[in-house]
Amino acid sequence: MTVKFLRVQDPSLAPSMYTTGKRAFVNDGLQEALFPPRLFDPSDPDEQHRFRIEALKKRLVAPDAWSIVAVDDDVKDEDGGVKVLGYSAWYEPKTPAAGDDQPRQDEEEQGWVDDDERSSEDDGVKLPRCMDVKLYQRLKSMLDESKRMLLGEPARPAWYLRSLAVDPDFSGRGLATQLVQWGIDRAKEDKIPAFVESTPAALSLYKRLGFVVVEDLPPLDNGHVLTIMLMDPEEKKS
C-alpha cells in the first residue's frame, strides 16, 4: 500500500470525502447535536448529504483553503473512482492591511463573521432545515470569541485546521498524523501558530504533535466538548 498526500481542488472528489467523513464521525457528539433526529425530515432523507457535499465542493475551490487528501492508486471506491482514505482542511493565514478593520475573506469562509446574512450559511452554502441553526450560531459565536482571545485583534496570522477525517478501515496507519503534520510544517516554515478545535477523540493526537490545550468550550447539551488547541513554534524556542 503506497499512500500519497496531495492538495486537491477538484470538486468531483467531494462525494468520496463526504463518505470518509461520515464513516469517521459515526456517533460523534457534535454531529449528533447539530443534526438532531427531531429535525430529520423523512420526506427528504438526503438533505444533510446534499448540504455536506455542496459545502465540501465550495471548500475545495476556495483560494485560501488547502484540502489535503490521502489516496492510494490501488484503492478505489465502489464506483471504481478515486477513494479518499483521509483528508484535512487547512486554511492559510491572511494578514489584513494596516488600519483595515473589515472582515477578511478567510474569516468569512471559515464562519468567523457573525451577521444576519452569513449566519444562515456555512462555507457559502445555505444551512439545511435538518440542522439546529441556533446551536450552530451559538458555536460560531463561541469560536469567534476564542479566536479573538487566542490570536488577538486584529488577529495575528495563523494556520487553521478546519477539519480532519480518516476512514476507519485505514486508521492506525499514520494517515491522521501526516494530514495534521502537513499544516504544522507550514506553520513552522512561516514561524506562526497553528490552531484547531479538537473533538475528545482527537485530543491525544494533537497533543502528541505539539498542540497544547488553551481552553475547553462550554459543553453542549449532550455533554460534547470542543477544545481549543494551539501549536506555536516561536514559544517552543523561548
Structural commentary:
By secondary structure, this protein is an alpha+beta fold. It has one domain: Aminopeptidase (3-Layer(aba) Sandwich). 35% of the residues lie in helices and 19% in strands. A seven-stranded mixed β-sheet has the order 1-2-3-6-7-9-8, sandwiched between helices. Strand 4 and strand 5 (125-126) form a beta hairpin. Helix 1 (14-24) crosses helix 3 (47-61). The longest helix is centred in the middle third of the chain and has 19 residues, at 133-151. The termini are far apart. The relative contact order is 0.16. Mean pLDDT is 87; it is low at 97-119. InterPro entries: Acyl_CoA_acyltransferase (IPR016181), GNAT_dom (IPR000182), Trichothecene_AcTrans (IPR052523). Residues 93-124 are annotated as: Disordered. This is Acyl-CoA N-acyltransferase.
Fold blueprint:
Elements: E1 4-8, H1 14-24, H2 29-34, H3 47-61, E2 65-71, E3 86-91, H4 105-110, E4 121-122, E5 125-126, H5 133-151, E6 159-166, H6 175-190, E7 194-198, H7 203-208, E8 212-216, E9 227-231, H8 233-237
Parallel strand pairs: 6-7
Antiparallel strand pairs: 1-2, 2-3, 3-6, 4-5, 7-9, 8-9
Helix pairs in contact: 1-3
Number of domains: 1
Mean pLDDT: 87
CATH topology-level fold name: Aminopeptidase
Gap between N and C termini, in Å?
41 Å
Query: What overall form do the CA principal axes indicate?
Result: globular
